[in-house]
Specification:
It is a single chain. This protein is globular. By secondary structure, the chain is α+β, with helices and mostly antiparallel strands. Helix content is 35%, strand content 12%. The strands form four sheets. Strands 1-8-9-13-10-11 form a six-stranded mixed sheet, covered by helices on one side. The longest helix is centred in the N-terminal third of the chain and has 21 residues. It has twelve helices and 13 strands. Bound molecules: calcium ion. Calcium ion binds next to loops.
Length: 394
C-alpha cells in the first residue's frame, strides 16, 4: 500500500445504517417480542451469543444523527431489552458466563443512558448511567481482576490458571481477554486496577505471556484458541471479538505509542489479501471493519461516544467521501513500514494532541495530517486530557 500513489477512497453511507436500525425495530415489532434480540440471521433469532448488541447500534446511530426510524419505539424496545437481559436485580449476572454477561450488559445500559440523555429523558439517563457502572460489582480487588460471582454474592472458586482458563466466566475467551471490555469507562477500570502503570503493565502482559490455555471448563479446544496460538501474539486473540478493541486501550493510559506499535503489527501479521487472509471468523463484517478503521488510523472502541481512538494509519493518503458531500482527508506523507509511530498531528492545520477524533468534527469535513516517525514519541498524547472518553471522567 505504501508504494501506491493512488489515495484510498471510501464512502460512508448513513442511510444504510438507518435502514438497518429500521429493520431491527421492525423485527422486534413483527415478532411480537418488543425487544431487540441478540443475533438476527435471515429474519430469525439465531439463539447465539450474549449481551445487547443492538443497543449500541441504535445509540451510536442516533448519536451520529442517523434517525430515520421510529425513535421513541426504538427507545422503548431498548429499555425492554435491558429489562429482559440485564444486570438486575443483583447488579451483575450470576451464570457460567458471569464476566461476559455482566460487562456486556453494563456497556449496553450505558448506551441507553446516552440515548436517554439526548432524548431529554433525564431520570432514565441517570438510572442507566448508574447501571453502566455495574462492571465494578464483579471486580475482585484481591485478585486484581474480574471474577465470576454467584447469586448469593460469593465469588466463584478461583482456579489455578484463572486468567487463562477458557470459559471461566467468559464466552469463547478467558478473563484475560474478556476483562478489558469496559469500553465506556476505561478510566474506571484503570482506577480499579490501581492506576495507569498497573493498567499498562497488565495490558503488556497479554502480548507477552505464551499463548497458553486451560480448556478443562469446556472440555475441548475451540477453533478460536487454535487461531490465538497460530497468531503467536501471546494471549492476544485477534481472531475473536472480545479482544479486538484491546490494543487501542493504551491511549487511555498515557502510552499511545504502544497502540501504534500493535495496530501495525496486527495489520501486517494477521491480515492478507489471500483466501486465508483473516485470522479468525469474519463475523458479520467485524473483523474486516477493524482493518478498514485501523488502516485509516482510528477505531471505534466505544460506539455511541462520538469518538474514534487513534492507532497508526497505514496509508500516505486516504479520503473518506461522506454522503453529505464533505470529505475527510487523512494524510501521512512520510508513512512507511518503518515509520509506524505518530510524532505530531494537525487537525485542519492546528496542532492536535488528543488520542481520539470526534465523529461530529469529522463529518463537517476535516483534514487530519499525521507526522510519522520510526521511534515512539513518549510525550505526545500522554496527558490525562488527551485520553478518549470515559464515563468516570465526565
Ligand atoms: Ca467470533
Amino acid at each position: 500500500v505504501f508504494r501506491s500513489q493512488m489515495p484510498l477512497q471510501t464512502i460512508i453511507n448513513p442511510q444504510l445504517v438507518s435502514d438497518l436500525v429500521n429493520s431491527l425495530v421492525t423485527m422486534a415489532d413483527e415478532s411480537g417480542r418488543h425487544y431487540f434480540e441478540r443475533w438476527e440471521i435471515v429474519n430469525a433469532y439465531s439463539g447465539c451469543m450474549l449481551g445487547n448488541p443492538a443497543l449500541s447500534v441504535l445509540a451510536d446511530a442516533y448519536a451520529k444523527g442517523i434517525r430515520s426510524y421510529d425513535v421513541e419505539k426504538a427507545y422503548r424496545y431498548a429499555v425492554n431489552s435491558s429489562k429482559r437481559f440485564g444486570n438486575d436485580p443483583l447488579g451483575y449476572t450470576p451464570s457460567e458466563l458471569c464476566i461476559s454477561h455482566t460487562l456486556e450488559y453494563a456497556y449496553a445500559d450505558w448506551c441507553i443512558s446516552r440515548l436517554a440523555e439526548q432524548l431529554g429523558k433525564r431520570e432514565d439517563a441517570a438510572l442507566y448511567a448508574a447501571k453502566g457502572q455495574s462492571y465494578r460489582n464483579i471486580f475482585d480487588r484481591e485478585k486484581g481482576w474480574f471474577r465470576p460471582r454467584r447469586a448469593d454474592g460469593a465469588w466463584e472458586p478461583w482456579p489455578e490458571n484463572a486468567r487463562t482458563t477458557e470459559w471461566y466466566g467468559c464466552i469463547e475467551s478467558n478473563p484475560y481477554q474478556q476483562g478489558w471490555f469496559v469500553p465506556h469507562d476505561v478510566e474506571g477500570l484503570v482506577d480499579l486496577m490501581g492506576g495507569r502503570e498497573q493498567f499498562v503493565q497488565m495490558l503488556d502482559s497479554v502480548f507477552v505471556v505464551p499463548p497458553i490455555y486451560d480448556d478443562s471448563y469446556y472440555g475441548f479446544r475451540i477453533h478460536e484458541i487454535t487461531e490465538m496460538q497460530v497468531a503467536d501474539m501471546g494471549n492476544y486473540a485477534h481472531g475473536n471479538q472480545p479482544a479486538q478493541h484491546m490494543i487501542y486501550l493504551y491511549n487511555y493510559a498515557g502510552a499511545p505509542w504502544k497502540a501504534q506499535y500493535w495496530a501495525r503489527e496486527v495489520m501486517d501479521r494477521l491480515y492478507s489479501a489471500c483466501p486465508d487472509g483473516y485470522c479468525g471468523d469474519e463475523d458479520n463484517g467485524q473483523t474486516s471493519a477493524w482493518y478498514v478503521f485501523s488502516a485509516l488510523g482510528f477505531y471505534s472502541v466505544c460506539p455511541a461516544s462520538d469518538e474514534y481512538v487513534v492507532g497508526s494509519p497505514l496509508f500516505r493518503k486516504a479520503v473518506v467521501n461522506l454522503e453529505n458531500g464533505n470529505k475527510i482527508v487523512l494524510e501521512a506523507p512520510d508513512n512507511s513500514p518503518e515509520n509506524r509511530y505518530i510524532g505530531a498531528v494537525q487537525f485542519d492545520g492546528k496542532s492536535y494532541t488528543y488520542n481520539f477524533l470526534r465523529h461530529s468534527d469529522l463529518v463537517k469535513g476535516a483534514g487530519v495530517r499525521f507526522s510519522m516517525r520510526p521511534d515512539p514519541d513518549y510525550t505526545r498524547g500522554t496527558e490525562p486530557g488527551d485520553a478518549p472518553y470515559s464515563f468516570s471522567r465526565e
